[in-house]
Amino acid sequence: MDGLGRFAEPSVLILASLADGPKHGYALIKDIEELAGTTLGPGTLYAALARLEQRQLIEALPEQDRRRPYRITPAGAQAVRSYLEDARRVVAAGLKRLAAFA
């Protein structure tokens, strides 16, 4: 996930969404809303998709009914898995430390 700058968070959300199958832009937006309770605007979404595709973490599939679906690549799955495992360790440690304030 290095080098994604301000698109790191949207990229993680996109990769997590694509982990259960290919989706086009609107389907990604809706799935991310359900998954994370946040809305990605079209500009943010498509900029992040371009960066992920450039880094070969996702790939575009053939157009279907004027929609372009994307799917996660094995490299994308490994990248988001590593990121989420690191995040899980930070969350667990942070929650443990905050338990003293309960």
UniProtKB/TrEMBL annotation:
Residues 14-81 form the Transcription regulator PadR N-terminal domain. InterPro entries: Metal_resp_DNA-bind_regulator (IPR052509), Tscrpt_reg_PadR_N (IPR005149), WH-like_DNA-bd_sf (IPR036388), WH_DNA-bd_sf (IPR036390). It holds the Pfam family PadR. It comes from the Bacteria. This is PadR family transcriptional regulator. The lineage of its organism: Bacteria, Bacillati, Actinomycetota, Actinomycetes, Micromonosporales.
